[in-house]
Amino acid sequence: MTLYLAAFFFFLIIGVPIAFSLGLASLAYLVLTGNVMLLMAFPQKMLAGIDNFVLLTIPFFILAGNLMDAANLTQEIVRFSQILVGRVRGGLAAVNVVASMMFSGVSGAATAEAAALGSVMIPAMRRDGYPPAYAAALTATGSLLGPLVPPSLSLILYGVLTGTSIADLFLAGIVPAFLLCALLVGYALIKAQREGHPLPTPVPADERRGIIARALPALFLPVIIVGGIRSGVFTPTETAAVAAVYALIVGMVFYRTLSPRRVAECFYETATMSAGVMLVVAMASMTSFILGIENIPQAIARAMLSLTESPALLIILLNVVLLVLGFFLEPLAALVLAMPILNQITPMLGLDPVQFGVMIVFNLMIGMITPPVGLCLFIVSVIGREPLDRVSRAALPMIGICVFVLALIATVPQLSLMLPAMFGD
Question: What's the gap between Cα 82 and its chain centre?
Fold first, then answer.
């Protein structure tokens, strides 16, 4: 396994994309260990990794998010957020976080959220006198709300890999997301008082009703997703298709901002994004095959048990390992790679699979705002035109808040299991 890891990090260091690094490292391992005959299984394992009907939800949900974003939904959500929380000192920072929470129900992906909201909020906060690095860091951290609420692509993938109910996973992430949102808003308001951030311009009273009316159709999308699956009216895949059609109708009929040309562009963007996701999953599946050959999951499980048999200490150790893994790997790839190992360890922890899924997904997502492979940090750094090191330093207190929420998810089952139990069958 050392040979595989050496090849993988070599390809990463020379700038090969993560998906191809996984595939090339697998290829190098099989050739250098004399398992050339197993190369015949390479395409079969790749196809088997993505040959799951539920994975069709990913391109449909990506399409729904792209259509909503193309319909200028971001502007509507920001204006609606200003009505809710934009009337206090540091209100624009609070608007940033609340808008992230609302946009999460549309995008389902942290990178899409960071790009869409960052292009609006970072310049606006800069104009109002906020430090650009702080504005970028807050936007990046707020983007982690996306993978916690429906339609979270990471929770979908976890459900596919483990057979866990996607509807339960969608419900389980909502309370932790609201908690993280509240803590980030509280941090922003305390920082505003301490550093004298500006008071925002209030939204005129005669405009509020129109803003609310324009935002509600977009905010209704998560209700369709969760309600459709939980009520049994739609399967997860059918719900994703309904969400995409709903987004198309809202953009073309209600907002009237989607032209046929822009719709075609959304389909093209969806195809390229979906292909990227599926390529990562396919390549990571080959790596999982190699892990099985080497019996790595069982070896790691035995090694952890040799250190301690306490479930609490195992949970702490597991979270530390996953946080380090998230520093170097994109979350979807890390999830596919880690699941064979996690499946061996899960029975020792005594955690509900739904709670465990939310914990794992959120843990890996924290890597999106930490160097060296923090994609959300790179996105907001480019948008804010700020050096990555400044944005990283500004994000440190917010990373601490995320780790605190992660600890609560791991130790307080009710935080993630309350809504699935309340709306259970």
Answer: 24
Which two tokens mark 389? Answer: 């090191």
Amino acid letter for position 344: Q
Per residue in 84-120, pLDDT (tens digit) is 776 778 788 888 888 888 877 676 677 777 887 888 8
Whole-angstrom Cα Rg for the chain: 21
223 Cβ contact list (under 8 Å, min separation 6): none
Helix (H, G, I), strand (E, B) or coil at 69: helix
Judge whether 325 and 334 are in contact, CB under 8 Å.
yes
Specify whether the CB–CB gap between 316 and 407 falls below 8 A: no
> What token pair was written down for 123?
């310049």
d(CA 114, CA 13) in angstroms, rounded, equals: 25
Name the pTM for this structure.
0.82
| Residue ranges covered by each domain of the chain | 54-422
Q: In whole angstroms, what separates CA 257 from the centre of its chain?
A: 27
Q: Which two tokens stand for residue 373?
A: 């492979």
pLDDT in tens, 21-32: 888 888 888 888
**H-type alpha helices, 196-249:** 205-219, 221-230, 236-249
Q: Residue 43: left (phi > 0), alpha (psi -120 to 50), or beta?
A: alpha
